[in-house]
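Question thread 4412

I'm putting together a teaching handout and wanted feedback from people who do this every day. The idea is simple: show students a protein as raw sequence, then show them the structure tokens that encode its fold, then repeat with a second protein so they can compare. Below is the first pair exactly as I plan to print it.
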Amino acid sequence: MSDATYRKLAKHLDELPGSFPATDSGVELRILRRLFTPEQAELAVHLTLIPEAAPVVARRAGISTGAALERLTAMAREGLIYSLEKEGSKPRFMAAQFVVGIWEYHVNSLDEELVRDVNEYLPQFFDPELWRRAPQLRTVPVGRSLKMDHHVLAYEQAEAMVRDRRRIVVAPCICRREHKMQGAGCDRPEEACLIFDGSADYYLRNGLGREIGADEAREILEQADRAGLVLQPSNSQKAANICCCCGCCCQVLKNVARQPRPAEYVSSAFRVTLDADACVACGVCPQRCPMGALTLAEGADAVALAAERCIGCGLCVSTCPVQALALERKPEGEQPEVPATLVESVLQMARARGKLGPLALAATGLRSKFDRLLAGERRR
């Protein structure tokens, strides 16, 4: 019975846009057993991507409203589901994807067994073709790599993304933290993930980070450049977060780097150009590049550029002492289409996987409306 419960939950998570594919080893089921009690697993399958109040979920699950509210609130605090909680309104609950979602929400509650299982699972979880068509994250250049004459849109500048935010939270990087737990990784700053607005409310409410102002957020972005961290916001023009990622720990960058042409798998508006005559072969840029796009052969007078490996992060440009490297905007036909909102980004992922088509979306919406009516709830 317990095994069937977790298989049902695994299938439920795999129906979400972010996926949760089955494996031959069953490691994904071991992960769910470590995270969810059987009771929590049984309740989680009744949540959708539509935020719903406890009475609605209670009716669907066949339990009392009081029991549902208590369990759902506890599950949100444990990072198993997502919640929207505003003063003066009933809390609403929705399903959380495994990545980006449940895994990241456990940054402060990792143990060696969970880390081991997730590291076994993530290489099988990551689908490079799906990521190419509908990435969850995109890459934007570090600020110092952009020139004044660049035509740069606001959602392509990390510094612009932290302006006019209602709330900003900085959280630990789960990738660097879990690598350190295994005696690996690097010494780059761990407190480096910026979370915004509604997502920041969730992080702060559940003790996953600390609230900061825009000035400190900009300092963290500058620190990321100095430390050689790639800036990866959520794949939406109104970003929900900016991850500051290193090539040695970040599971996304590590899997992208394994591809023969990483540039094709990353949503980025820019690419680097090289003036080989100006290069003095100082050797700094190959150490900064997380994709191996720049190499310096022994005795060479200049670095060599493999453009097909460049993801446009700008880390090589910001530290080139002779300005031999520069970013340029990709041709119009190679510009990524960035969804306007996180909702549109999630729907893009769903379409890429053949999930949540028009009929499925309509059915989910109608079911939610029907359950709300039967539960006596009005949509707010």
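The second pair follows. I'd like the answer to focus on this one:
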Amino acid sequence: MSGDKEDYQQFMNKGHSAAWEQDWDQASLFYRQAVDEFPDNPHALASLGLALFELRQFGDALKVYARAATVSVEDPIPFEKISQLYELLDKPENAVKAARRAADLYLKKRDSEKALANLVRATQLNPEDLAARSKLAMVYEGLGRKQQAVNEYINLASIFQHSGDEDRALQALNHAITIFPGSTEALKAKEQLQDSNPLPKPARSKVNTGELIKDQLQEAENSEEVTREADNLDPVSEAQNNALTILAGLLFEAGDDVAQLELAEGRGYPDSSGYLGSDYLSQEDRNKTLQHLSRAVNLQTQGIIEKAAEELEKAIEAGIDHAAAFFNLGVLRSKSQQIESALQALQLVVNHPDFGLAAHLFRGNLFRKSNRVDDALVEYFQALRLADTQVVDARWVDELWQYYDLIIENQSYQEDVSIQERLCDSISSVLINKDWKTYLKKVRQDLRIRGEDSDLIPLGEIMVAANSLDIVENIANINKLAEDGCLRSAMEEAYFALKSGPFYLPLHEQIGDLLLIQNRKDDALAKFTLIAKTYAVRGEKKRSTEILRKILNLAPTNLDVRKMLIQQLFDGGQIHEAVMEGLELGEFYVNQAELMKARSSYSETFKTAQKANAEAALLTRILHRMADIDMQMLNWQQALQVYYQIIKLQPGDGQARSYLIELNLRIGDTAKAFEQLDNYIEYLTLQEEVGKAIKFVENFFKDNPDNMVIRQRLAKLYGQAGRIDEALTHYNAIGQAFLKQGNREAAINIIEQILSMNPPNRAAFESLLVRLQDK
């Protein structure tokens, strides 16, 4: 999306002002507008993430920071925030993973203190996280903090010992003793290990920042005043009363000399600006309109329905133009069994905010009386959509509305009349009820146990799968029993609920969670896998993906599931996410020191990404991982081939060029090394990046100060950049070196290059040139 920079800056400034005033609602609004202008702006994303965090919308804040992390892949701050949010959301495994990533990025920036802070956070969340502990030990060692490094190596030894790897435990302790020979703790731990005594497990920190923050937020919420609704009528009865009240009000407000009635504004339904007859009507005709309306109201209150409908219809024909009149006419016609006439009148107000819900319910009832159950079901779902969107956050209304379009379309293919009847009964029993709104809010509250995204689950979808919304309460009860430790009762409740909702997948997911709590991990994984496949078959790829990710969090090495997820992401065009999953598997193998498996995983990801026409930046990211492993395994020839692939995809990749030169020099192929150096210099020169070329060659010269070829390339670049003094200094040193070597022709060539730059001591160089040429 191409945004307007001026608008963007205004939104950001307004957001900052609101944030300064602690008005986070306004701040989030402005920051969101800024993000809409420039979706990939990391500053806007970070600001929006902070505002959402202050609003306690942790799920939304997490999504924003996750987006920021994909935009600024080398920025540690989004990952740091993601870790904190996952901790608040009680997802410690994800929090640990994000903290480790933040630490790695801080280390790249040479900010060791912040890297340590994130690694410490990871070990607080999971004291036995091997990757975090090992990195923490290495960072402490690199900083010379010997005692802290020793402590971490002892922790590593404990983790290895308890996992049955005595050899690696001993290796960790020996290394601790090597870096701090006088450590009594390390020596004592080694003695315990050799005596087969268990080492103390790494301790969990007593401070849980996530719990502290949540306690503070809960206390603030408890201090707020709680309001209750007092709805005394179901929506149909309420709408009928409102319609009659409005019509009676017209009579009260109008007099014989009144030409116009002022009523409520409206759009998309009969004119609610409320003209009591056209300006072209005479006063006498307007009075007739009032008379018809008056008779209609009086007859209706007396229970003379057919006559009341006739008078109201005459009032409408004379000029009454208000949604209340059309709704009331529909009610009267339905009571006198004039169904088609009633349906037509009610259709005129289905989009009215005050009468739409009741109109759909009324039409549903009328269609059922006419044995048009398929049409009735559509009306009931339309009513449920209106009701559902009244009890969710305004942010989700548009998206939720669209989901109902899909549900209504799918139900149009339903041919089983018994299922249609059952759904009609279920929806009408919920909505034609005085406590309908309180009940739906309770259902929504119970649903939020699954997270903030649950607001995007249409209640109509639950109706279709379970024929009732009661199953949501069942799931809430199951959660409560599980939290209280009553696992057997929770499982019994779950299987009982299955009888009424065998196809409701969130219930199956709940059973999988209970299996996990009971340490039946294999059964849980089998259950989750089946759920993911079922979602995929239904075309609900987003939810299928969520379940697959859940499985991988539990079993990161489950290759079948990861392949399923990667393929699903590729099929859905989510190429970046698919590649990230492949890279994550490779990283897991690297952490386990299984380098061959890691490289195989990266290679498979690369091939799949190629077939999906992934962008060059993603492909080179995979190739760099492959080359890193080749380098670690000292397979330099294979690493060379990979780096050649990288520069073919991205000629400007300086890291790949650097390794190509370094590896060719290492294996003694200086010709290819200098060919790559010249190619990269030429590429950067064509890109008008001579300064970048100079820095690149300077770095190589620092490592190879005696290499005349590199020095000559550097001198030439200085000359091109107009840095004559530096160029002359290097050319002079090169010439002297050639003279010492007795290489007269090379020395002459260098002197000629110096003279072309018009040096201040030109005469001396000309004299030297003549002497060399005369020899």
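Top answer:
Good format. For the second protein you could add a caption like this: Residues 283-302 form the longest helix (20 residues). The chain has 40 helices and no strands.
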